[in-house]
Amino acid sequence: MASDSSQSFQIISSLRYDPSLPAVVAQHAAHSYPEPRPTPYYLLPYHLDRLINAARHFNWHHAVQFLEQGLEGFTSALDSFIPDRTKPWRLRTVIEDKPGAGLTVDVNPAAPIDPLQLLLPFATDAAQQSTPWRIYVDTQPTIPSAFTTHKTTAREYYTAARHRAGIMSPQDQAEVLVVNPAGEVMEGSITTPYFRRRGSSGNQDNHDNHLGWTTPPLSCGGNAGTTRRYALAQGFCAEQVVPASELVDGERCWISNGVRGFMRGVVVRQQA
C-alpha cells in the first residue's frame, strides 16, 4: 500500500438523492432520523462530516476550507448537479485539494428500492421481504491504512477483493468482507456489515434476540461509513470484533451503505 503522501487520489463519498425520502422519514422515523429531516439527500450531514474528517486527516487545507462552509453550502453545491428533482439519483461526490476547491459530482440513476430500506431495520420490516445478498469472505488479508479508514479513489484492494470473490459487476447482489491480517472483519467492499452479537464462546446467538447486532470497530481498519454511524447512533448495533473464522455458512446478517440503505445478507463460505 502506498503511503499517504506518495499516491495521487481524491476524497469521495457516495450518497442517494431520493425525493420520496422526506415523506418516508416523517411517517416512519420522525424522531430517529438525523436532522435535517426534510432533505432528499440521504444522511446528508454524515456525508459532509466524513469528507471533512478525511480532508483534515490528509491536511487538505483548501478542501477543508470549502467543506467547512457547512450544510447550506454543501447542499447548494449538490443541488447544482441534480438533473431532475423528481427522480432518485446516485451521487458520487469527489473533492481535491487545490485553490478554489469545490465538489465534482458524478450523477447516475439510482437503483430502484423501497424507500423504507433507507431506514433502520427496526423501524420497518419491509426489507425482511427482500432477496438477501450473498456475502463472501475475502481469501486474502488487506492491510489497514488511511485508505481503508477514509473513503478515497484509491480502492484497488477493494476491487481485487471483489474479483477474488467472483463479483465482476456492481449490479451483482453480492458483497465481499475485507479481512485484516489478524483475521478480523474490517468491512464490506462497498458496505458496512452487521452480524448477530457473539456470546462469550464466540458463537453466534440466534435465539437471544436481545443480544442485538454488532459491527466491527474502526480499530479493525474499516471505514467510518454514514449508515454505520446512523445504526450506532440509534442503537441498532454495537461494536464488536468479528473474527472471520467464526462466520458460518448460511448465517444471516445485514449490510448497508449510503446509496442503497439497509439490505439483508447471508454468509456464503463455499462458492459454487
In words, what does this structure look like?
The protein has 272 residues and is an alpha/beta fold. The protein has two domains: 11-112, no CATH class; 118-267, D-amino Acid Aminotransferase, subunit A, domain 2 (D-amino Acid Aminotransferase, Chain A, domain 2, Alpha-Beta Barrel). It is built from seven helices and eleven strands. It has helices at 21-28, 44-57, 61-67, 71-79, 146-149, 156-164, 226-233; strands spanning 11-17, 89-95, 103-109, 133-137, 174-179, 185-188, 192-196, 213-215, 237-239, 252-257, 261-267. The strands form two sheets. Strands 6-5-4-11-10-7-8-9 form an eight-stranded mixed beta sheet, with helices on one face. Strands 1-2-3 form a three-stranded antiparallel beta sheet, covered by helices on one side. It is globular.
In total, the number of domains comes to: 2
Amount of helix:
10-25%
Count of helices?
A: 7
pLDDT under 50 segments (min length 5)? 1-6, 206-210
What is the distance, rounded to the nearest whole angstrom, between the alpha carbons of the first and last residues? 31 Å
Order of the strands making up the biggest sheet: 6-5-4-11-10-7-8-9
CATH evolutionary superfamily of the largest domain: D-amino Acid Aminotransferase, subunit A, domain 2
Q: Which band does the percent of strand residues land in?
A: 15-25%
Mean of pLDDT: 90
**What's the alpha carbon Rg, rounded to whole Å?**
18 Å
CATH architecture tag of the largest domain: Alpha-Beta Barrel
CATH fold title of the largest domain: D-amino Acid Aminotransferase, Chain A, domain 2
The SSE order reads EHHHHEEEHHEEEEHEEE
The major β-sheet equals: 8 strands, mixed
Secondary structure tally: strands: 11
Structural class: alpha/beta
- What is the oligomer described by this structure? single chain
Mass-distribution shape: globular
